[in-house]
């Protein structure tokens, strides 16, 4: 049977992760984390099904290795949600960029 190379996100059974203890404590969620989780719940609800869990996972696993390593858990989620919504033409890429700029400006001002 032909083996396939692992994707960057597939780190199970690989050193140094193989010999590290697993931290089983639950991290404290930030307001951002809670908002992203709520957004995903709204978008994936049976009445909408705009983003499915498998689409979210696929988009996260498709992140370039440097981005995958640099982003926190819910930062990966928001990038993936954005990718799926743009890919499905639910939101335009330009519309998303403009809205993000508007949000950044409001936070600064």
Describe this structure in words.
The protein is an all-alpha fold and 109 residues long. It has a single domain, classed as Cyclin A, domain 1 (Orthogonal Bundle), CATH 1.10.472.20. It contains five helices and no strands. Helix 1 (31-44) packs parallel to helix 4 and helix 2 packs across helix 4 (73-87). The longest helix has 16 residues, at 93-108. The N and C termini lie far apart (59 Å).
* CATH architecture verdict: Orthogonal Bundle
| Cα end-to-end separation | 59 Å
Structural class computed from helices and strand pairing: mainly alpha
Roughly what fraction of the amino acids lie in strands?
A: under 5%
How many separate domains make up the residues? 1
Salient structural properties:
Cyclin A, domain 1, single chain, mainly alpha, globular
